[in-house]
Write a structure and sequence with these properties.
This protein is mainly alpha-helical. The chain contains four helices and no strands. It has one domain: Orthogonal Bundle (434 Repressor (Amino-terminal Domain)).
Length: 78
């Protein structure tokens, strides 16, 4: 299993490894550029927000990253 923080760190690593900012990666995947902003990672009440699976798949597609490779990022620290 993985944590909320690990998932967001993996998204940051994915962007960095593909020479994107998180907003640039979101745009390239056809998403709103604020999708991966740090301010969007928690609700205004402090509850964690998890990205939707289809959002992750879109970013994996445009970065040509397998789900298995992304899973390895979950174990890495930022």
């Amino acid at each position: 299993m993985f944590t909320h923080e690990q998932l967001w760190n993996a998204i940051d690593i994915l962007a960095r490894n593909n020479n994107f900012s998180t907003s640039g990666m979101a745009r390239a995947a056809g998403l709103d550029p604020t999708t991966f902003n740090r301010s969007k990672r928690q609700s205004k009440y402090g509850q964690p927000r998890w990205p939707q699976f289809d959002t992750i798949i879109k970013t994996l597609t445009i970065t040509n990253t397998s789900l298995a490779e992304f899973a390895k990022y979950l174990e890495q620290q930022n």
